[in-house]
């Protein structure tokens, strides 16, 4: 196994690899055989952090949700769980377990444990905010799961900074186990969280675990002006970045840095993200081992200051015209 320097996840006891393997494709664009190959290759290369959700992949016709967790559970049963493996999953979007009410959170956690075949979920996320449930009810439910040993640590995903702060305040007031991390959308071309969520994370010691780190595949460099259509469910959204001047600028910068580093554009984009303030690990998924091979260098690649600055400048917000 390749040695990967693990990082502490916020104030938690978890130590994770810089590249977190997204499980959204398991049982969807990667069938069980392909998923096992991807998981084998990822762990053989020193990765130790798997991210899934109970709702993956309910959006596919004929699927009910839980497909990804089931594949991961079968892989764990087949291979044996690596000693340092960290498994994260989420609740609120499964068709049978919607929202963040206390009863739903606990029932969904039990169902996830059964599919994964584990006794404890290392990191359990509130997947999306639930305005219909009192925030205190949700916070207490997650905290009780920690007390019961069902969950080791709590995370939030897709929550606005104000709601994250409110959740943290409830935990402080009531002596609850507080979230240790936030999973936001963040990448080289979508940097909006730098204005509000990043300062909050730094202030409160929260780890950031960005998803869509490759901007739906755009930052792999395979989408180019005039290029042939790419066979991907996300191709339309990824290609839209080409219509923005920043999109073309970042491709040029990625090409320059990738050539300089001898790495793929994808690995360079993830390495830039992994070194941003408060980021502990970056999520990316692969539907075959060939795609994974382009991502794995992100576990080791660290950009020099000049390369990182080149990428940052390429995607800095446009200054106002009258500035």
Automatic annotation (TrEMBL):
Listed Gene3D superfamilies: NADP-dependent oxidoreductase domain
Organism per entry: Nocardiopsis dassonvillei (strain ATCC 23218 / DSM 43111 / CIP 107115 / JCM 7437 / KCTC 9190 / NBRC 14626 / NCTC 10488 / NRRL B-5397 / IMRU 509)
InterPro entries linked to this entry: AKR, AKR_Detox_Biosynth, NAD(P)_OxRdtase_dom_sf, NADP_OxRdtase_dom
Pfam families attached to this UniProt entry: Aldo_ket_red
Domain NADP-dependent oxidoreductase intervals: 18-313
GO cellular component terms, semicolon-separated: cytosol
Name by which UniProt lists this protein: Aldo/keto reductase
Domain of life assignment: Bacteria
């Amino acid at each position: 196994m390749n040695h990967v320097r693990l990082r502490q996840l916020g104030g938690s006891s978890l130590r994770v690899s810089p590249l977190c393997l997204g499980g959204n494709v398991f049982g969807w664009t990667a069938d069980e055989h392909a998923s096992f190959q991807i998981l084998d290759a990822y762990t053989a290369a020193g990765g130790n952090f798997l991210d899934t959700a109970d709702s993956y992949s309910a959006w596919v016709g004929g699927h009910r949700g839980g497909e990804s967790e089931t594949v991961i559970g079968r892989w764990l049963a087949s291979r044996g769980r690596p000693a340092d493996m960290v498994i994260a999953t989420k609740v609120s979007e499964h068709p049978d377990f919607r929202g963040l009410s206390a009863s739903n959170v606990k029932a969904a956690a039990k169902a996830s444990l059964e599919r994964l075949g584990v006794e404890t979920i290392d990191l359990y996320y509130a997947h999306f905010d639930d305005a219909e449930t009192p925030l205190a009810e949700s916070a207490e439910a997650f905290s009780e799961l920690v007390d019961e040993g069902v969950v080791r640590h709590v995370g939030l995903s897709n929550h606005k900074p104000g709601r994250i702060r409110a959740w943290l305040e409830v935990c402080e007031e009531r002596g609850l186990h507080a979230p240790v991390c936030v999973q936001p959308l963040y990448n080289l071309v979508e940097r909006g969280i730098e204005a509000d969520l990043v300062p909050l994370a730094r202030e409160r010691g929260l780890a950031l675990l960005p998803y869509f780190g490759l901007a739906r595949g755009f930052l792999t460099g395979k989408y180019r002006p005039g290029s042939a259509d790419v066979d991907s469910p996300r191709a339309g959204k990824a290609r839209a970045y080409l219509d923005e001047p920043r999109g073309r600028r970042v491709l040029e910068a990625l090409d320059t840095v990738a050539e300089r580093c001898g790495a793929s554009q994808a690995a360079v984009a993830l390495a830039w993200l992994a070194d941003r303030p408060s980021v502990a690990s970056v999520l990316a998924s692969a539907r075959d081992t060939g795609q994974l091979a382009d991502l794995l260098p992100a576990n080791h690649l660290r950009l020099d200051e000049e390369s990182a600055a080149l990428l940052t400048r390429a995607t800095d917000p446009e200054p106002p015209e009258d500035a």
